[in-house]
């Protein structure tokens, strides 16, 4: 239901990319992915919400939005931040299968993760937002509900700009 609410709030593009072999993606990552994430990626494809919030998609050629590439890169960034003593990361960062699993990013550099250490069921993983400059926020809600609530203004992410998402959230597709 949450994904359907998101689809009504923010219309997906008419044409999306090629079908995704989710079994192969999950095998490559070594972990299952939330069902609503897969539905959202299949409906919207690669792009951003409100010209600000990007979801990583599997197997796309652009490494900046490629899920597999960004899962590794974002975890490496968290490790580097901790190793340099810049910031303490309040979540496990040893492995994306038992810690932070990146699924998106904002234009300001805020990273979006699931906390996979929270349980075996992907649908129950909390969403974690890591601020680009500092700060962490956690939301115990599925991705479809979280996106809908953020885009509709029902919840506010303190780390995001005050004027985002605006009155009419839009999805902007990226040519890949």
Question: Can you characterise this structure?
Answer:
This protein has five helices and seven strands. With 176 residues, it is α+β, with helices and mostly antiparallel strands. The chain has a single domain, classed as 3-Layer(aba) Sandwich (SMI1/KNR4-like), CATH 3.40.1580. Strands 6-5-4-3-2-1-7 form a seven-stranded antiparallel beta sheet, with helices on both faces. β5 and β6 (136-139) form a beta hairpin.
Question: Notable features of this structure?
Answer:
SMI1/KNR4-like; seven-stranded antiparallel sheet; 176 residues; 30% helix; 5 helices; alpha+beta
Summarize the structure.
The chain is an alpha+beta fold and 176 residues long. It is built from 5 helices and 7 strands.
> What profile does the largest beta sheet have?
7 strands, antiparallel
Rg of Cα set: 15 Å
In spatial order, strands of the major sheet run 6-5-4-3-2-1-7
- Classify the helix fraction into a percent range: 25-40%
Helix-strand sequence: HHHEEHEEEEHE
Q: On the 0-100 scale, what is the average pLDDT?
A: 90
- What is the CATH top level name? Alpha Beta
Poorly predicted spans:
none
**Given the C-alpha coordinates, what overall shape results?**
globular
Cα-to-Cα separation, first versus last residue: 29 Å
CATH architecture: 3-Layer(aba) Sandwich
Structural class: alpha+beta
Please state roughly what percent of the residues sit in beta strands, choosing from under 5%, 5-15%, 15-25%, 25-35%, 35-45% or over 45%. 15-25%
User: Quick one: how many beta strands?
Assistant: 7
Domain unit count? 1
Number of helices: 5
Could you tell me the CATH topology label.
SMI1/KNR4-like
């Amino acid at each position: 239901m949450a994904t359907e609410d998101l689809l009504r709030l923010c219309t997906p593009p008419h044409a999306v990319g090629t079908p995704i072999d989710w079994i192969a993606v999950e095998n490559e990552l070594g972990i299952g992915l939330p069902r609503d994430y897969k539905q959202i990626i299949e409906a919207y494809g690669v792009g951003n919400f409100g010209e600000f919030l990007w979801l990583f998609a599997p197997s796309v050629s652009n490494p900046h939005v490629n899920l597999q590439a960004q899962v590794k890169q974002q975890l490496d960034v968290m490790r580097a931040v901790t190793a340099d003593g810049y910031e303490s990361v309040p979540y496990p960062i040893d492995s994306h299968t038992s810690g932070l699993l990146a699924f998106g990013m904002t234009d300001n550099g805020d990273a979006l993760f699931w906390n996979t250490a929270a349980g075996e069921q992907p649908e129950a993983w909390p969403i974690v937002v890591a601020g680009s400059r500092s700060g962490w926020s956690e939301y115990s809600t599925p991705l479809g509900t979280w996106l809908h609530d953020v885009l509709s203004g029902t919840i506010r992410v303190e780390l995001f700009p005050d004027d985002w998402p605006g009155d009419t959230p839009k999805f902007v597709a990226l040519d890949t």
